[in-house]
Amino acid sequence: MQSVLGDKKTILILLAPALLFYTLIKVVPIFWSLGLTFFDGNVLRGFTPAGFDNFTRLVGDSNFWEALTFSFKYAAVATVLQVSAGYLLALLYVFALKKSSVIVRTICFFPVILPTVAVAQLFKRIFAINPQPGPVNAVIEFFGGQSIDWLGDGGTAFAVFMIMDVWKSMGFFAVLLFAGLVDIPEEVIESARIDGANGLRLVRHIVIPLSLPVLLAATVFAINSTFKVFDSVIALTNGGPGNDTMPLTLYMFRTTFTYNEYGYGSTLALALTVVAFLITILVFRSSRRDVTAAKGAKR
Predict the structure, then answer these.
(1) Which of 86, 108, 35 is nearest to 221 (CA)?
(2) Structural domain contains residue 121
(3) In the beta sheet, which residues pair with residue 40?
């Protein structure tokens, strides 16, 4: 076996099918999309060279900037809420429920495996105003208030998005962060408690610094997933009312497949990729500075 794995030709032959499949599915479409940014048209009417016209159009496109602003807003708020809710649940698992947390973890994780469309339909019904008020509006009317068209206004629709996304994803982040918390040595926790660190002081000065790597991983994952949000928007509001809840991903999809502007759609996809890459780099760099500063303070 060692002689086989040591032969470079054999390794190449064994890996060739997987590499070929990966190249055709992943690499080729990436370069194809990059190439389309310099063309205008679609598969029906053909493609004509456009030079840098798509990039010029991108800079002056108000719909692009509105969609990008909404994507930033959505990613920032959703990331904070998702990671915070997941971290609070993880702390509950480790320090309050302990060994009896298995059932609670299972219940909290259940929404993660539900289809996004089903979850969106559930929340549409919960916040419905017609044909009959949903549970939320029913409670408001019970206390003498007036029903609210939650999905008919951009501000309230955004609030529904946040509630839905946190409910659906906090179980995943709780499990992810729980795995990082259980790796903290028990003797470190006990030593801190003996020194008088309890409650919030223990979490602030011991637990959070020691769980910083897994918090960083959860934050990066949350930012990238929320910045590229698509399915929940389609299922809940389809970008409405108007374009108030349209992220960059949905604008790219409509431009490419509804209006058949493949060249400009590819330009939007490239912009989305670049922005997501830059955000990830900024998060990593800021976290490194925080870790370095924390180490310097300890010394």
Answers:
(1) 86
(2) yes
(3) 48
The CATH number that applies at residue 249 is 1.10.3720.10
Mean pLDDT score, 256-270: 94
Give Dmax over CA atoms of the chain in angstroms.
80
SS (H, E, C) 87-124: HHHHHHHHHHHHHHHHHHHHHHHHHHHCCHHHHHHHHH
For 145, the token pair is 């208030």
Specify if 37 maps to a domain: no
Q: What domain range includes position 118?
A: 63-293
Contact 168, 116 (CB under 8 A): yes
Nearest residue to 216 (alpha-carbon basis) of 144, 291, 273: 291
Give pLDDT tens digits for 5-15: 566 787 788 88
Unique residue bearing structure tokens 């909290």: 108
Contacts of residue 271, Cβ cutoff 8 Å, sequence gap at least 6: 58, 64, 68, 248
Let me know if residue 41 belongs to a domain: no
**pLDDT for 151-179, tens place per residue?**
999 999 999 999 999 999 999 999 999 98
Number of domains in the chain: 1
pLDDT (tens digit, 9 = 90+) per residue, 185-244?
A: 888 888 888 877 777 888 888 888 888 889 988 998 898 889 999 999 999 999 989 899
Nearest to 178 by CA among 227, 226, 108, 77: 108
- Confirm whether 26 is domain-assigned: no
Q: CB pairs under 8 A, 24+ apart, for 111-115? A: 111/167, 111/168, 111/169, 111/171, 112/168, 112/169, 112/171, 112/172, 114/168
Report the run of H or E that residue 46 belongs to, with start and end.
strand 46-49
266 closest CA partner among 255, 278, 277 = 255
How far apart, in whole angstroms, are the C-alpha atoms of residue 101 and residue 58? Answer: 50
Whether 296 shows a pLDDT value over 60: the answer reads no
Q: Read off the amino acid at residue 116.
A: T
